[in-house]
Amino acid sequence: MQIIDSIHEWKKIRETLQNESIGFVPTMGNLHAGHASLLKRSIHENSTTILSIFVNPTQFNDANDLSRYPKTLEADLDIAKDLGVDYVFFPNTDMMYPDKYRYKVTENAFSAQLEGQHRPGHFDGVLTVVLKLFNLIKPHKAYFGEKDRQQLLLIQDMVKVLFLDIEIIPCPTIRDASGLALSSRNQFLSIENKLLASRFPAILQSNKALEEIIGQLSNLGFVVDYVEDYGQYRFGAVKIQSVRLIDNFDIPTTDDSVVRRRVYEQ
Ligand code: PAF
């Protein structure tokens, strides 16, 4: 496994990979079993797999969230190597943003909803860095988790409207034994709060009215950012103290839920 921290060096390597099928897993590091599932799938489906590790500052609207984002490079590299990743692309902010973020990708409808409503500018940062990474890595396939469903939908849409020749592969959410979706932020939960957090997925996917779900979560002590049906999915985001959890599920196709659903343009 080679670790590359220079764009120039990466471009030279990429030229030697013309006959390979290239799978790409972009991450912000702190790898867990969710990331491992994307990497395993890429390794299985492609002759060469590239993992990127870059904590992208432009997608954080909260400076505290950025500064405490866990950085575990050595452990990440061990995981990547054990899985059989071929290259780890590890750029820094100056390399990725030589323009100091003067240029950005903005989607101005769906990205303002749900997560976007609570994290202004978040998806500009995500779409911009993902497009830059796609242009550098030039993958045939790129792997994204369904846990970040809104991100996944926006990236699929960006690839379509910008005519990028990349297949986006959605990968199922990986959960712990309690049902809680794996996330780098879960490690900030106390044991007690982790127990509470594990109730979130079951309540979110229950076949109750949205208002009832919000009420139940609030009564348990969650601060609810949103619980909304959008397209074919139910999206939810809650906070326990300073830890934010997001999740989503397919919603049941009862007449009631069809009426309440909002439509995103895809
Ligand atoms: O999902 C993530 O980890 C990030 O949003 C991504 C796609 C790596 C972009 O920074």
From TrEMBL:
UniProt keyword Cytoplasm present: yes
Swiss-Prot/TrEMBL catalytic activity: (R)-pantoate + beta-alanine + ATP = (R)-pantothenate + AMP + diphosphate + H(+)
Keyword Acetylation listed: no
Pfam families for the chain: Pantoate_ligase
Pathway noted in the entry: Cofactor biosynthesis; (R)-pantothenate biosynthesis; (R)-pantothenate from (R)-pantoate and beta-alanine: step 1/1
NCBIfam families reported in the protein's UniProt record: panC (TIGR00018)
Function statement: Catalyzes the condensation of pantoate with beta-alanine in an ATP-dependent reaction via a pantoyl-adenylate intermediate.
Name this polypeptide is given: Pantothenate synthetase
